[in-house]
Design goal:
The complex is a heterodimer of chains A (about 350) and B (about 350). Chain A is of the alpha/beta class and about 350 residues long. Chain A contains 11 helices and 14 strands. Chain A folds into 2 domains: about 190 residues, no CATH class; about 140 residues, Nutrient germinant receptor protein C, domain 3 (GMP Synthetase, Chain A, domain 3). Chain B is mainly α and about 350 residues long. Classes of the chains: A alpha/beta (about 350), B mainly alpha (about 350). Chains A and B meet through α1, α7 and α10 of A and α6 and α12 of B.
């Protein structure tokens, strides 16, 4: 008898426990998939949330709402009082930051993404050249899901082209790593299209300058590994060569000479030739060695150019400081900042054309 | 005192019991604690601490095989009945306090990550319901759960390290040995606590058939957990930057946030739920040890002590706040350090001398 009463008690307790566990039924919540933040002046932020609306027997639509607030959660609260269902952030895919806000610093707003356990760390982040809320509100995406569109676009471009692998985790890593500055994808609304236009170089968490498409090719080579990626080179004699990168790897060497660090970056690329055009209007045999050497020189020049630009602005997206710290036990942040603008960096690129396709 | 053969387990199970006793909630957050002490050299500290635990295991085996019983037999042979029982009671209380500290940490994780509004006592009751079921089944059931917790969640979790390793920055670990001896020593000290738990051997030793031959399995168990903790700290160290790790309360849980499968966007919910198996098997082992000891000390049924301790734990979980929890954790850490790494070696020496004296006399 006593055992039965105990069992009954336990069952009641467990069942009442179940009602205390909050439930989220999928068509009774608004799942935010994209957020955008812009600077609205006077310490306020213009926040935009995009969430899909599912209806019976109808294609889903995207609802985009904007309000002002001082923190990102205040924005959420403000939008909550005009939405039909409670707002949940567990399905967040992209976080966009307007250029105006990025210039002031984005760390305070990124903090909540990191703090909220329901948000994954593979959320994509991007800086918008223009207004993030305008981009999320684009007419074209009224029936299509703008957040998923941006997410997949960035994913695709990181996988197969010139954007290095970037997401919330990499941002937090680069931001908090000593001797490294972060960078984020830069996107723009061009008429009624969304376009990736390059990379935004940040100093700490503030936008400094953009690195546009032409420089992006070598930049990814320096910071990440290529698996795919087409690039066109124009040689001096007017020949055009298009190479597809099969594999690339950059090795950083640090030497300390007279107490100052000196860096050598060895970049190796395995490629295959995809297209070749000669101005001579007739078939020319490919001179592999000559092409390789010329491309090496071009890329080295390009790399030195962007590194010079980084030094001029005092930003270090390549993480040279972090590399220096690995090799020098007495690393000192202040001293490094003094050394950086005049630090010597050598770049050796070695492009290897492995295949020329079915013809040579 | 002989234990009935029906209640004993084969020697090789010592591996699983030792593994289970060492791995608890600590592995989800120790990376940050040890990195705060010895920076990114701390993974070396884990290895060194593992070696110290090996020595400790050897000592316990020496002590217990001489007494041919558990710690209570040792105590009563050395100190006599009354004083011996007082000493044993302290150790039983340690097992219980350790179990409270484990369950509170796990409940905190569930509340932060999954159900922020769920009251602690409900979770506590649910977990302890499971634990009661295991412990009342006897030692063999406790061992069975240990074995399962190794097989199902643990081996799977090790495979999951592949995901964060894809984004690893191995150069983070450079330069190696960049910290002072003092800092490394501090790192070893706090790694010792994360590797703690082997002291349950003091209670379950007589329950292993042909106990002396289980020694190598116990050493293997410690080796496995040492390597597991080292691997886990290296994965965290290469995944986070140092100041990022400093802000992350549960680095191992945050690691699972990068896992994104096409059919499952957020993996950590499954991870935490699966972790319940590991936690409840650890709790079963701790509470089994504690109640087994109390049974021998007070000569009452084990079941009564189990119910009392569980009710006490549930009440504690409800009245406890951040401050008391901090104090509790501190007490458990200090007790672990002094009782097991300080007191047991001394006891071994005294016990050896007494035994030798008896032989000569």
């Amino acid at each position: 008898m006593g055992k039965r009463i105990l069992l009954g008690l336990l069952v009641t307790i467990f069942l009442s426990g179940c009602t205390m566990i909050p439930t989220n039924i999928v068509n009774q919540i608004n799942m935010i998939q994209g957020v955008g933040y812009d600077w609205a002046g006077k310490n306020t932020i213009k926040g935009t949330l995009a969430y899909p609306i599912y209806k019976k027997n109808q294609p889903s639509t995207t609802e985009v709402k904007t309000t002002l607030g001082e923190t990102s959660k205040e924005i959420r609260v403000n939008i909550n009082n005009e939405s039909r269902y409670p707002i949940q952030s567990g399905q967040l895919r992209v976080a966009l930051y307007g250029k105006s806000l990025a210039k002031k610093g984005i760390n305070d707003i990124v903090d909540t993404l990191n703090r909220d356990p329901s948000i994954g760390s593979t959320v994509h982040m991007a800086i918008v050249d223009g207004d993030a809320s305008e981009l999320l509100k684009m007419k074209k995406f009224k029936t299509e899901n703008v957040s998923l569109y941006v997410q997949e676009m960035l994913d695709q471009y990181m996988e197969s082209a010139r954007l290095p692998e970037l997401n919330l985790h990499t941002f937090l890593f680069q931001y908090s790593q000593k001797g490294q500055d972060p960078y984020l994808p830069l996107i723009k609304q061009v008429e009624d299209n969304i376009k990736i236009i390059g990379i935004a170089i940040l100093k700490d968490d503030r936008y400094v300058f953009p690195l546009l498409m032409d420089d992006l090719f070598i930049f990814k080579g320096l910071v990440d590994k290529y698996k795919h990626g087409l690039h066109q080179f124009k040689l001096k004699n007017g020949e055009m060569v298009v190479l597809d990168i099969l594999h690339s790897k950059a090795k950083y060497q640090v030497k300390i000479i007279n107490g100052r660090p000196e860096f050598t970056i060895n970049l190796k690329m395995k490629t295959r030739l995809q297209e070749f055009r000669s101005p001579k209007k007739q078939r020319v045999a490919i001179n592999k060695k000559k092409i390789q050497q010329e491309i090496d020189k071009q890329l080295e020049g390009n790399a030195l150019k962007i590194i010079g630009k980084f030094k001029k602005h005092g930003v270090d997206p390549l993480g040279l400081g972090a590399k220096y710290k690995e090799h020098y036990r007495g690393f000192n942040d202040k001293q490094w900042k003094r050394f950086y603008p005049t630090a010597k960096v050598h770049v050796n690129v070695k492009v290897d054309i492995k295949q020329t396709g079915t013809v040579d | 005192m002989e234990v009935d053969k029906r209640h004993q387990v084969s020697p090789y199970f010592a591996f699983f019991i030792i593994y289970n006793s060492q791995v608890g909630v600590g592995i989800l957050g120790f990376q940050r604690t040890i990195a705060a002490k010895a920076g990114y050299d701390a993974w070396l500290c884990v290895l060194v601490a593992g070696c110290i635990v090996q020595v400790f295991i050897w000592m316990m085996y020496q002590l217990l095989s001489k007494a041919d019983g558990d710690i209570i037999d040792v105590h009563s042979q050395v100190f006599g009945n009354f004083l011996g029982n007082v000493m044993s009671f302290t150790i039983m209380m340690y097992y219980w306090l350790a179990s409270v500290s484990v369950v509170l940490s796990f409940i905190e994780i569930i509340q932060v990550w999954m159900f922020p509004t769920l009251p602690a006592w409900i979770l506590c009751l649910m977990i302890f319901g499971l634990v009661y079921y295991c412990v009342s089944g006897g030692f063999r059931v406790v061992v069975g759960v240990s074995f399962l917790s190794f097989l199902v969640p643990q081996l799977m979790f090790i495979v999951l390290y592949l995901f964060p390793l894809q984004a690893a920055h191995f150069s983070n670990l450079l330069p190696i040995m960049n910290h002072s001896f003092r800092e490394l020593l501090d790192g070893i000290k706090s790694s010792m606590y994360t590797l703690a738990g082997t002291e349950t051997l003091l209670m379950f030793y007589p329950f292993i058939r042909d106990a002396k031959s289980s020694k190598k399995f116990a050493h293997l168990g410690v080796l496995f957990t040492t390597l597991l903790y080292t691997l886990s700290s290296i994965v965290s160290f290469t995944f986070y930057s140092e100041s990022q790790l400093n802000q992350t309360i549960w680095p191992e849980l945050s690691l699972t946030k990068v896992i994104r499968l096409s059919y499952l966007e957020r993996f950590e919910y499954i991870f935490i739920s699966m972790y319940l198996i590991i936690v409840s098997s650890l709790l079963s082992l701790l509470l089994w040890s504690s109640t087994r000891g109390l049974k021998k000390i007070f000569k009452k049924k084990q079941k009564y002590f189990l119910i009392v301790l569980i009710l006490l734990s549930v009440v504690t979980s409800q009245i406890i706040n951040e401050e008391i929890k901090g104090v509790l954790d501190k007490i458990v850490t200090q007790m672990n350090l002094w009782i097991f790494y300080g007191y047991i070696p001394v006891l071994l020496i005294i016990f050896t001398l007494i035994k030798r004296g008896k032989q000569n006399g």
